[in-house]
Automatic annotation (TrEMBL):
Domain of life according to the entry: Bacteria
Listed transmembrane segments: 6-21, 33-52, 58-75, 87-111, 117-135, 179-202, 214-235
Matches recorded under InterPro entries: UPF0014_fam
Identification of the protein by name: Putative membrane protein
One CC-aspect GO term: plasma membrane
């Protein structure tokens, strides 16, 4: 087994030294998370060798479902919605991921093979998780800052959904900003990880770029759908969460 990749940890050690020297109080978090990432990816490497041999669609769906459950658990820990917020996180991530993943299969851009659906599904679910946390966190901030406007709309006879209209718009917009920035700079400022990996593996540059475009457009869709589902599933719980 090749262990040269461990030399890259020198870069993390340099960051740890700087953080410790400047007393930024996040060096412990970086150390723990960097070791955690190493362990998780090492386990993943061994698991994938078995997962890629699976042939049953039910087994593959079970793995994807577990990934969504874990993403929902992580999302709830980050934004902490009151009143069974875990269900909101699960439904938002599940619905958005399901639509995008099976759209790719229907368009024959990927197949239901483990070496395709598991990595792509992981990217979809991971991005959906990020968008969910951004959208809901932005909703909480917007409600705190505009509670007077929300109360006035309701007092004038508007529904809670009407009162949250501008909050939902702002939250979806905030959740879309990272992917918009990526679309603007991809291929100019940075070469994405998928492209780099395929090039290192010996793929033709045009093949690598074509697949990267599928991934980028896929992330756009999952960002939008997750944002929409998040604000529609979460708005009834936001008030209780913010002022609990």
């Amino acid at each position: 087994m090749e262990y040269k990749f461990l030399l890259s940890y020198i870069l993390v050690l340099a960051a740890l030294f700087y953080l410790y020297k400047e007393k930024l109080d996040i060096e412990k978090t970086l150390l723990i998370n960097s070791i955690r990432a190493f362990i998780q990816l090492l386990i993943l490497g061994y698991l994938l060798s078995y997962i890629f041999k699976l042939e049953s669609p039910l087994e593959l769906l079970g793995i994807l479902t577990f990934m969504i459950l874990f993403a929902a658990f992580t999302g709830q820990r980050r934004v902490k919605l009151a009143d069974k917020g875990y269900i909101v996180a699960f439904l938002s991530i599940f619905c958005a991921s399901f639509i995008v993943l099976f759209s790719l299969i229907a368009l024959n851009l990927i197949t239901f093979k483990p070496n395709e659906i598991i990595p792509v599904g992981g990217m979809i679910i991971g991005n959906s998780l990020n968008v969910y946390t951004i959208a809901v966190d932005r909703m909480k901030g917007e409600v705190k800052n505009t509670i007077d406007i929300i109360e006035n709309i309701i007092a004038l006879g508007g529904s809670l959904k009407d009162a949250f209209y501008f909050v939902n718009r702002a939250s979806i917009k905030a959740a879309m900003i990272p992917i918009l920035n990526s679309l603007q700079t991809v291929g100019v400022i940075h070469i994405p990880g998928i492209t780099v990996g395929m090039l290192i593996a010996g793929a033709h540059p045009l093949e690598a770029v074509s697949f990267q475009l599928v991934i980028m457009y896929m992330i756009v869709a999952v960002a939008l759908f997750t944002g929409i589902f998040s604000v529609n599933f979460a708005y009834k719980k936001i008030i209780r969460t913010v002022f609990n």
